[in-house]
Amino acid sequence: MIVVMRPTATQEEVDGVRRTVEENGLEAFLSVGEERTVIGVVGSDLERVAHLGTLDGVEQVIRISSPYKLASSEHQVERTRVRVNGVELGLGQELVVMAGPCAVESRDQLMETARSVKREGARVLRGGAFKPRTSPYSFQGLGLPALELLHEAHDTYGLPVISEIVDPADVPTFERHVDIIQVGARNMANFVLLKAVGQSRRPVLLKRGLSATIEEWLLAAEYILSAGNPNVILCERGIRTFETATRNTLDLSAVPVLRSRTHLPIVVDPSHGTGHRSLVGPMAMAGAAVGADGLIIEVHPDPANARSDGDQSLSFEEFGALMDELRRLQFVRAPEDERTPATTAAPIASDGIEEVRDRIDDLDARLGEMVQERAALALEVQRRRAPEAHGHDVRRERALLERAATGTAGPMSPVELTMVFDALLRASRSVQRRHARSVIEAEAASAGTGR
């Protein structure tokens, strides 16, 4: 059950309710909102505290019908926001992208990836230290040295880090080295591990089990919450079905279902959910569209030679392109009334067909020169910015696309004009990324030769 306190309830009255609950052998969990305090009551015999509604400061007592009490939105109406090192994940916040390699393989690999994903806008660095693999002969991770490398990456680039835990005894070690502890799909039903991370001070990202129902998943989260850790993040990473075209079946319908059942933040993993690099981008966009609070994506400097999950890992360039799309999603969702209606079309030229074609050829040549000049200027912007900074300005890009859609008259529709300028922006970003990559490679070569 939950006890809803009056907005005017004093701390003494709240403490009185909690004391009554504990004196009757039950557990009390406080949720302090902006307007009122809610107390969750958990135990096997709730009839012993049926009189809570008569206590001072109590507005109402509500019985929770769902088996997961603390994870239920009935227990906590306000959505939980998990905060870690300046990053907020939860309803109303910016989409949080977690990115990095499936497994930490070396210092160079991790640092190069951390530098790249931060530059593209990732807010959290992911990396596996201990890898539970189906085959005992597959790469199992570097273990503790990988956690130390993640700690170093955090200190160097300022990104919070997340890594998967497999042994309850490792909780203190993870608390020293990572900011978010991940419980993988294979350990969703490892109740000893769930209780152990529930006693941790770190937020916990709980992945859905390979064949788990949503209720079973939320009950697993209940283990962590009931152990005292309120900072639980749910991660939809695909479930096992009869379909073999993808590694798993990414259940995006779980996101709105969870929205109606729980107050916990929700993350989508399109990498494990599909198992194919070409599907990661579309499913990431779909995850953002259905309301996920964050995405967790595998990125590797050389996916073809990755020691773990290379087939579903994005290259730096592919990840950058996806981040551009996620940014532009905000523009796509802009209200229609913020856009100016398209102007009327320009008159069609009256010259003969050959003369018109000659004019087209002339324009094509000039367009080619102008496009090259624009790319050169975009590259110059990249050169003049800090190495870790973006060479582009998302607000300027949105303004350009809006002008393209509304500022000129002619036979092309606003959608068609936007497509042209969108392609131009993509090409410019490709040039900037290629330049940034060459700078990194040159720096690495120079460091290797001792110059």
Structure description:
This protein is α/β, with parallel strands linked by helices and 451 residues long. It folds into 3 domains: 2-62, 2-Layer Sandwich (Alpha-Beta Plaits), CATH 3.30.70.1140; 82-332, Aldolase class I (TIM Barrel), CATH 3.20.20; 336-449. 43% of the residues lie in helices and 14% in strands. It has 13 helices and 14 strands. It has an 8-stranded parallel barrel with strand order 7-8-9-10-11-12-13-14, surrounded by 7 helices. A 4-stranded antiparallel β-sheet has the order 2-3-1-4, with helices on one face. Strands 5-6 form a two-stranded antiparallel sheet. The radius of gyration is 26 Å and the shape is globular. The relative contact order is 0.09.
Short note summarizing the structure:
With 451 residues, the protein is an alpha/beta fold. The chain has helices spanning 11-23, 107-120, 144-157, 171-177, 191-198, 214-226, 254-261, 270-274, 277-289, 316-332, 353-384, 394-406, 414-449, and strands at 2-5, 27-32, 37-42, 58-62, 82-84, 87-89, 96-100, 124-126, 161-165, 180-183, 204-207, 232-236, 266-268, 294-298.
